[in-house]
Amino acid sequence: MVVRNNGYQQSVFFSSGNTVLASLYSVSNSVIEYFYLKSTNDGLASENTALKNQVIELQSQLETIKDQVPQPGSFKISPEKELRYIQAKVINNSTNKLLNYITLNKGKRDGIRPDMGVVNEEGVVGVVSNVSEKFAVVIPVINPKIQINSKFIRNNYSGPIHWEGDNYRYADLNDIARHVVFSLGDTIITSGYSKSFPEGVFVGTVDDFKISESDAYYHIKVKLGVNFRTLTHVKVIDYLNYQEQQNLENTMQE
Asked: What's the whole-model pTM score?
C-alpha cells in the first residue's frame, strides 16, 4: 500500500527492482557464457587430442624409416594439401534469418581473401564472401546462397549440401542417386572438389532420408556438425596453391 499510494516510495521500489533485475540478467549471461565456454573447451581438448595422436603416428612412421636415407626432394606434399590456417573470432552472427551471415575480426591485412573455406573444431562453417582491411564476412552453410560439395565417407558418392532455410542444425544432401547404399548416421565430409575446402572436413551425419518410387534421387536430411548458435572461434583455410590453380582453370574458359 505504501509503494502503490506514494510516488517517491514507488520510484525507489522500481529503481531497486530494476537494479536487482539487471544483476540477475548479468548472472544469467555469465552462466550461459560459462557453459558455452565449457563446450568450446571440450571441443578444443578433443581437437588437441586428435592432433597429438597424429604427431605420435608421424613419429612412429619416422622411426620406421629413419634408417632409410631419402634422396633430396623425394618427399613432396600433394599440392591440394598445401594449406595453412588463420585463426579468427566471430564478432557478429545470425541463425534465424533466411540469408545468414558471419562477421570475423580478420581481413585483408591478415591474409584473408574471398572464397577461403572456414571451419572450426566441429566441422565446416562456410566460405568467405567479402573482405575489408580488418574484417571478413562469411556465408555460412545455413545460407541458401552457397552449396558445399560433400560425400559419404563410406563410399565416396558425392553431392552438394544445401540449406533450405528451415532449422539451423540441418541441411539437405542432394543429387544422391537411388542406387547408392547408405544408412542413418553415416558420416558426410567435404569431397575436396573445390578450392575452398580440402577433402575430409567433417560436415555432418545422415539424420533422415526418403525416396518414392518415381524419384531418381534421395531426399537426405543431414545434421550439421557445427552448432552456429555457439560459434565463437574459427579457422580460415588458406589454400597456398589457389592462385595457380585458378589461373590454369581460367585458361580453359578463354
From this structure: 0.73
